[in-house]
Amino acid sequence: MDKIGSQANDALTSPAAQRNREPIAEVLRQVLPETGRVLEIASGSGEHALHFAAGFPTLEWLPSDASPEARRSIAAWRRTAGLGNLAEPLALDVTSDWPVEAPLAAIVCINMLHISPWSASEALFAGAGRTLGEGAPLIVYGPFRKQGQHTAASNARFDADLRARDASWGIRDLEAVDALAETAGLVREADYSMPANNACLVWRRRAC
Measuring CA to CA, which residue among 84, 97, 92 is closest to residue 109? Predict the structure, then answer.
């Protein structure tokens, strides 16, 4: 992410967020409920939160990030937009306590699983199992391996680059992620193919 505007402006911009926000929004239109609180995990620059809050005005959008710099950026975008349904960013590390009240209407997590340790994936699904309402969706966007194989040569190169930067990072196997979901009481409902060899996956919390 690159800082934009003057040094006094904390807003950050991500070219990837600009490119993928509308394809992701199209999936969200199909799976999100009409009303309720949606927690966005690892909101980054805040551009997704801004776009989705504007596009889903009957939902309360709860952006979050573990990074203080990211939260300052989210807050800056929020001040600029003035959207009543976009909440102040939460300081949330998936591996720690989640400062949210259950039940949530949905959880959205974009481009986190492959740039974090596997423990973050485990914590995401465990937290979703604790906080999602019955039948509520967890929507995860990013690249995945399927049946032990990368879905494109570019993903294989990307995976190698990620692991060179941090050995705990890397593109995750969908079957391993599904196993985390099963343990947390979630069932995969859909797998949407997305641009640039990514996927948007939807799990729903089973009835207790």
Answer: 92
pLDDT tens digit string along 37-52?
A: 999 999 999 999 999 9
Q: Report which of 69, 73, 70, 68 is spatially closest to residue 11, judged by C-alpha positions.
A: 73
Rounded to a whole number of angstroms, the distance between the first and last alpha carbons of the chain is 40
Domains identified in the chain, total number: 1
Domain hosting 183: range is: 2-205
Model confidence, pTM: 0.95
Query: What is the domain-level CATH number for residue 164?
Result: 3.40.50.150
| Segment among 3-12, 85-94, 167-176 with least mean pLDDT | 3-12
Q: Where are the alpha helices (DSSP H) in the chain?
A: 15-31, 47-55, 68-81, 118-131, 153-165, 174-184
Report the candidate in 30, 15, 37 with the shortest Cα–Cα distance to residue 111: 15
